[in-house]
Write a structure and sequence with these properties.
By secondary structure, the protein is of the alpha+beta class. The protein contains four helices and six strands. This is DUF3221 domain-containing protein.
Length: 122
């Protein structure tokens, strides 16, 4: 009986891992830097590695401020999971945004179908 229960638990865990991997591979995703954030939305700038190479955090923040004055970047809704877990986003943090569909191309853009925002080191 214990062996059967153990196999059941292993099977459930395997399905969760496979399902999570499948779900994440079927999402759009973008990496960027947080410019501004509140409880409901985050303003993110997608900066390329070439743009930020050798730049200090203050220089990256200045770059985002300049782009903000030109209505660049994209607003993303803070998804349910991030609100429930109390995830706070600070200016300059690197994030990966997962979402279902293409955003609205305005200045700045907007993505309403955000599913998850992960903080990334570096």
């Amino acid at each position: 009986m214990k062996k059967r229960a153990g196999l059941f638990i292993v099977a459930i865990l395997a399905l969760l891992v496979i399902g999570t991997g499948f779900w994440m591979s079927n999402q759009y995703s973008e990496e960027g830097y947080v410019h501004l954030a509140n409880d409901n939305e985050v303003w993110v700038f997608m900066l390329t590695p070439e743009e930020i190479e050798g730049e200090t955090q203050n220089e990256i923040n200045d770059m985002m401020e300049e782009r903000a004055s030109n209505s660049q970047g994209v607003f993303v809704d803070v998804p349910f999971f991030n609100r429930v877990t109390g995830t706070d986003f600070e200016t300059g943090e690197k994030v990966r945004v997962y979402y279902d569909s293409a955003g609205i191309q305005t200045g700045p853009g907007r993505i309403d179908s955000t599913n998850l925002i992960l903080k990334i080191d570096g």
